Amino acid sequence: MPPIRRALLSVHDKSGLVPLAAALHARGVELLSTGGTLNALRAHGLPVTAVADLTGFPEILDGRVKTLHPAIHAGLLADRGKQEHLAALAAHGFAPIDLLVVNLYPFSRTVAAGASPADCVEMIDIGGPAMLRAAAKNHTGVTVVSDPADYPELLAALAEHDGEVPLALRQRFAARVFAATAAYDRAVAAWLAREAAGGESEPFPARLDLSLDRLFVPRYGENPHQAAAVYAVHGGGGVLGGFTQLQGKELSWNNLLDADAARRLIARFPAEPAVAIVKHNNPCGVGRGETLRTAWERALACDPVSAFGSIVACSEELDEATAAAIAELFVEVVIAPGVAPAARERLADRRQLRLLVAPPFTAPPGTYELRGIDGGFLAQSSDAGEDDPAAWRVPTRRAPTPEEMAALAFAWKVVRHVRSNAIVVANAVQTIGIGAGQMSRVDSCRLAVGKAVLPVAGSVAASDAFFPFRDGLDLLAEVGVTAAIQPGGSVRDPEVVAAADERGLALVLTGRRHFRH
Asked: Would residue 14 show up in a list of annotated catalytic residues for this protein?
């Protein structure tokens, strides 16, 4: 392939545009451009030819038609290896275009900003995708770049190869172009479908397309022999709310899974100091208090052994006192909505500790949770919403005391984030014992009370699904649990209610199950 001699630049995002154009001009490349890009280049004194002068046809329809012309598309699509293509160009007075630099109108950003339908329609790019696809198809003879982040790689290749771009790089650029235009088309299709449905997203469309951007490649996946990568939803805020890592080693696959679980759990306590300690996707301690330090101490007291090597999530800015306490224990990750400067200093010598700042977790309406299975995915709506305590009912003779109800509400928030079958024993300010992931609910009860290092007597229990038999409730009553909360819905509910009455327990039925497989 000969060196690049002629380039067409037409971009909405003008980041890095002028340095790129200046570097091309310095190499003797002829510059062509349109509209705002043309004006930006001329404002910096760069010689550039207007596409309208090249085509002999003015931009019309408010710029909707400017590059949709044979002079442009023939220059992009002509096969340099076919003499008849080159002869056709010459016969019509056209010339090859060797480099195309185009990025698209910000359609998704315009929709996200709440623009009117008319304004959104104007951000549906037509000429840009047409040129990009033409150049990418003809990548054996044309170099195409659609992302300002690729400019340095382009310029480095030109410098290294005396103005040429190697075929392998042209292929990579072309692949990125088709990925970008495909994602663009999916965004437009999804928006039009919502508009056709009166602004509501179809819950589960017949075709569900994913557009993901690779963020980084960790050293390995769950285990050292497994390769892995981390992807973010294209155009979204990034994983973990677009977190910032202040210090520490690279995040691992398991770190990210646990940090996500911890962040989702701690979002249940938005208006108070609270701490969640997570290990292997399960909480091993949750506490709340008048201060974050107190919340940490209460969370840690639930299971100090399992907290070693854990992930810690804070509901509010990490302060120095809490940071100092956390520093006494080996933890893998601390994630909080903010970190005070003094707290950061306290943890600075813990170089292995990954310190993350991330906004509180929210689940926007219409978001899906996907789980991979052989040959496909399972999709479901998020279980992020809060339950309505007004819908709860008490079937037992004894109703919970206000103190018990506060503890039940706390335990119910936590049990939703424990792997099924899930049992949480707690008081109003901290978890006392957690039974997770057991095949029978009575075994989860045994595990929860068996792991408890704090007094169980006078505590309450939460179950993520109904008690299928009375055995679990009997076991809890024997160790001093005074009240329990569960969804209900079993054919043996009357048997379980009778057991609670026999034991003098108060029982609350929420009517909503929260399995977490």
From this structure: no
